[in-house]
Automatic annotation (TrEMBL):
One GO term (biological process): proteolysis
Protein name (Swiss-Prot/TrEMBL): Carboxypeptidase
Gene Ontology, cellular component aspect: vacuole
Keywords: Carboxypeptidase, Disulfide bond, Glycoprotein, Hydrolase, Protease, Signal, Zymogen
SUPFAM superfamilies: alpha/beta-Hydrolases (SSF53474)
Annotated signal sequence range: none
Organism: Aegilops tauschii subsp. strangulata
Superkingdom to which the source organism belongs: Eukaryota
Pfam families: Peptidase_S10
Catalytic activity: Preferential release of a C-terminal arginine or lysine residue
The EC number(s) this enzyme carries: 3.4.16.-
Assembly information from the UniProt record: Carboxypeptidase II is a dimer, where each monomer is composed of two chains linked by a disulfide bond.
Molecular function terms from GO: serine-type carboxypeptidase activity
């Protein structure tokens, strides 16, 4: 802010997907508590987000069963032997839970879990123009001393290089099991929170998002309804939305996988535009008026 004073006071939003369900709220929380000079934080938006371990896991297996990806017997074994509670999130699964989970994984072996309706494409043409060294370029760049200095990274001078998936940190056991208390604190400080979910993702599916948000036990401000990708004519149903008191919205995106913009860019644009402006997503009444 001192280096770029022209940005002081501007509204600031943070968005992300998947494990950003943890680090976006955590970053917002750090800004809220420690930012100096003050950053005008207004909202966060997290997509197909890892929020709460036990409901995320429960919702994933519920999604598999309700979308006919696993058998009744496998689903029953998971629900009987796996502990989807706060206490269970910190404990090692039982052998019977492992067995049932392995059965589910075997059923999904030939399915793209990040978009369960995606074709299983094995065409060799996809790799004709693929550069297999892309990851190495990124790692080489982020390990350059001048880049790390500019990013204020590796200030403790670690003796091993940065990598996307490090083999050095193999015993990471202090990951937060839930960010629900952080989300609740953000809401108390008038920070807008949108949780959106592509409804064909099986990795962190919409069922997980719904179960996690329901843990907050928030009063409904505007009931579940469809939203539309356009107000011009008969816009397509883009998904569904429910709004809660405290400025939290749960939004689904129809036909989108784990990374919503890559599957449904039009709906994603409408989603982001309305999040930033604080406006309600288009409904069918608006469509009829145009």
């Amino acid at each position: 802010m001192e280096r770029f004073p022209e940005y002081k006071g501007r509204e600031f939003y943070i968005t992300g997907e998947s494990y950003a369900g943890h680090y976006v709220p955590q970053l917002a929380h750090a800004i809220l508590r420690h930012a100096s000079p003050a950053i005008n934080l207004k909202g966060i938006m997290i997509g197909n987000a890892v929020i709460n371990d036990w409901t995320d896991s429960k919702g994933m297996y519920d999604f598999f069963w309700t979308h006919a990806l696993i058998s009744d017997e496998t689903a029953a074994g998971i629900n009987k032997n796996c502990n989807f509670t706060a206490a269970g999130a910190g404990a090692a699964p039982s052998a019977l839970c492992y067995d049932a989970s392995d059965e589910a994984s075997e059923s999904l072996r030939d399915i793209d879990i990040y978009n369960i309706y995606a074709p299983n494409c094995q065409s060799e043409k996809l790799i004709d123009n693929f550069d297999p060294c892309t990851d190495y370029y990124v790692e080489a760049y982020l390990n350059r001393p001048d880049v790390q200095k500019a990013m204020h990274a590796n200030v403790t001078r670690l003796d091993h290089p940065w990598s996307a998936c490090s083999d050095v940190l193999t015993r990471w056991v202090d990951s937060a099991k839930t960010v629900l208390p952080i989300i609740r604190e953000l809401m108390k400080n008038n920070i807008r929170v949108w949780v959106y979910s592509g409804d064909t993702d099986g990795r962190v599916p919409v069922t997980s998002s719904r179960l996690s948000v329901n843990q907050l036990q928030l009063p409904v401000a505007a009931k579940w309804r469809p939203w539309f990708s356009s107000t011009k004519g008969a816009g397509e149903v883009g998904g569904y939305i429910v709004q809660y008191k405290g400025d939290l919205s749960l939004v689904t995106v129809r036909g989108a996988g784990h990374e919503v913009p890559s599957y449904q860019p039009r709906q994603a644009l409408v989603l982001v535009q309305n999040f930033l402006t604080g406006k309600a997503l288009p409904d069918c009444k608006e469509c009829e008026q145009d």
